[in-house]
Specification:
Elements: H1 2-20, E1 27-31, H2 37-45, E2 50-55, H3 57-60, E3 70-73, E4 85-89, H4 97-110, E5 119-127, H5 133-149, E6 155-156, H6 157-166, E7 171-176, E8 181-187
Parallel strand pairs: 1-2, 1-4, 2-3, 4-5, 5-6
Antiparallel strand pairs: 5-8, 7-8
GO molecular function: O-methyltransferase activity
Keywords: Methyltransferase, S-adenosyl-L-methionine, Transferase
Pfam families: Methyltransf_2
Length: about 190
């Protein structure tokens, strides 16, 4: 069962990563990437990309660092390893605007120049990005969860744009995917 799920996840990542255009990218850091499922799926589909997962020490203390994924112990508020691309998947909605700006500034310090493909890929909800009533309801329920459980929130495009500008990024692009998640690419 695990192999089947792993294969399906890999296929999903391949489909999404086509949008990310990893051509010419050599290094990628998945911030808060847990046990490395996303990074492993990326390597499976794009073996030329060297993937590192940045996680808190207690999360990765029992994970072997001898596989295709590198694991770095650290705190995204202090340091993000240098890479061409940094991925933040379902990270920023947990944090208030001030903390998001701190994280995004660390990302900006970590990525290579735009000319060499440097960017941050964010996978999050963009409120109002879908016409589906079911997806809109899911977005609002997730927003309520973030407001009550964490200091974060779901954001609309205008709120995302303000965060990117305040963190010093030059431009961004949002690709709406199936469901209520979007892929947001921000460039230095």
């Amino acid at each position: 069962m695990e192999n089947r799920q792993s294969g399906e996840y890999s296929e999903m990542v391949h489909a999404q990563a086509e949008l990310w255009n990893l051509t010419g990218i050599h290094t990628l850091v998945d911030v808060g990437g847990g046990t490395g499922a996303l990074a492993k799926a990326i390597i499976h589909n794009f073996p030329h990309v060297e993937c590192t997962v940045l996680e808190l020490p207690h999360v990765i203390q029992s994970i072997s660092n001898d596989g295709p994924v590198n694991f770095a112990s650290g705190d995204m508020f202090n340091f993000i390893p240098p890479a061409d691309v940094v991925i933040l998947k379902w990270i920023l909605h947990d944090w208030c605007d001030e903390d998001c700006i701190k994280i995004l500034r660390r990302c900006k310090e970590a990525i290579s120049s735009r000319e060499t493909g440097g960017r941050v890929i964010i996978i999050e909800n963009v409120i109002g990005s879908t016409l589906s009533k079911t997806c809109q309801e899911a977005q609002l329920l997730t927003d309520m969860l973030m407001l009550t459980m964490f200091t974060g929130a779901e954001r609309d495009e205008h709120e995302w744009q303000k965060l990117f500008t305040d963190a010093g990024f030059g431009s961004y692009q949002i690709t709406h995917t199936i469901g209520f998640n979007s892929v947001i690419e921000i460039y230095p």
